[in-house]
Design brief:
Blueprint lengths: L1 H13 L15 E2 L5 E6 L5 E8 L26 H13 L5 E5 L6 H18 L5 E5 L6 H10 L2 E3 L7 H7 L5 H15 L9 E8 L6 H15 L3 E6 L16 H17 L18
Parallel strand pairs: 3-4, 4-5, 5-6, 6-7, 7-8
Antiparallel strand pairs: 1-2, 2-3
Helix pairs in contact: 2-3, 3-4, 4-6, 7-8
């Protein structure tokens, strides 16, 4: 049991880089007594729930230049069998420590294999343990259509991370991912199935890594606007790029936090105040003002 708890602790720490299940209501993530990160997640009705945010696998086989987990990761890696992870999560639920789950993963063997393992965890939570609470699952780029729909049957929310606003900018920082066939395909699959009565999923989210590819704010905002208009996106999240040692971008300047903040303000204008893309003002460099 101590080995499982150590893996849960390590997994939760390394899942912090995915913001598609971000905090709401002005709250912040906290550490429980065993060092696990617990996140308050904002629900559509304004309530927040404490969720455990974990990875099914660490040590990704992809080569994304900004990522801690790239090319096998560094340090101690781990993997969870679906039985192991589902049982441990339910132990935390019964102890009153969490009320929901955000499940993500590095890619092992293949996107299909990784997604199958993640879905196996959710199937055990739902059917073996009869958990009826909130679940958010990240769709792995390269998952097939049946897997995406199955994820929507099992989770209230799914996310497909764009990471960058265009094919060119994505290729510059994540050469192992294909913008159209993997990411946009997954988002379109989610969008066309939202509203089905046999699916739990009611919304989907995405995330941008801001500044890693040298993209302009105008490109991100246009991508975000198109995602709301064409892909029925529920919400966008933004992560200001921060260089990580021993990655190809370790010497790149970090993205100012204010740039991330301005993008969140723009997103709020779209979602809450009915602004259009044409209403957003950019400076001469096609960025949002930081002053």
């Amino acid at each position: 049991m101590s080995l499982i708890l150590e893996k849960i602790k390590l997994s939760a720490q390394r899942a912090q880089y995915d913001l598609a299940c971000a905090c709401g209501g002005g709250q912040t993530r906290t550490l429980d007594s065993n060092g696990r990160w617990i996140y308050p997640v904002a629900l559509p009705n304004g309530e927040t729930l404490p969720v455990l945010k974990v990875l099914q696998f660490s040590g990704c086989e992809r080569s994304c230049f900004y990522c801690f987990e790239r090319l096998g990761g560094r340090g101690k890696n781990f993997c969870f069998h679906p039985d192991e992870l589902s049982q441990t999560f339910m132990d935390l639920v019964r102890a009153g420590l969490v009320k929901g789950l955000f499940l993500s993963s590095a890619i092992r063997r293949s996107p299909i294999y990784t997604m199958d393992c993640m879905l196996g965890t959710l199937e055990r939570i739902r059917f073996k343990h009869q958990f009826r609470g909130f679940v958010h699952i990240k769709i792995i780029p390269g998952a097939d259509e049946n897997q995406i729909i199955r994820a929507m049957q099992l989770a209230e929310r799914v996310s497909v991370n764009l990471e960058a606003p265009t094919q060119k900018s994505l290729a510059a920082v994540a050469p192992g991912k294909d913008y159209d066939s993997q990411i946009i395909f997954a988002m379109r699959t989610v969008a066309k199935n939202l509203g089905r009565q046999d699916l739990r999923c009611k919304s989907h989210t995405t995330q941008y890594v801001v500044g890693a590819a040298g993209e302009k704010d105008r490109q991100i905002v246009e991508s975000l606007w198109n995602s709301y208009r064409e892909l029925d996106l529920g919400r966008g999240y933004f992560s200001a790029f921060q260089p990580i040692i021993d990655t190809p971008l370790e010497n790149m300047m970090p993205t100012p936090a204010m740039r991330e903040h301005r993008l969140y303000q723009t997103d709020f204008l779209f979602r809450k105040y009915g602004f259009n893309y044409e209403d957003i003002v950019f400076d001469n460099d096609e960025n949002l003002s930081l002053s």
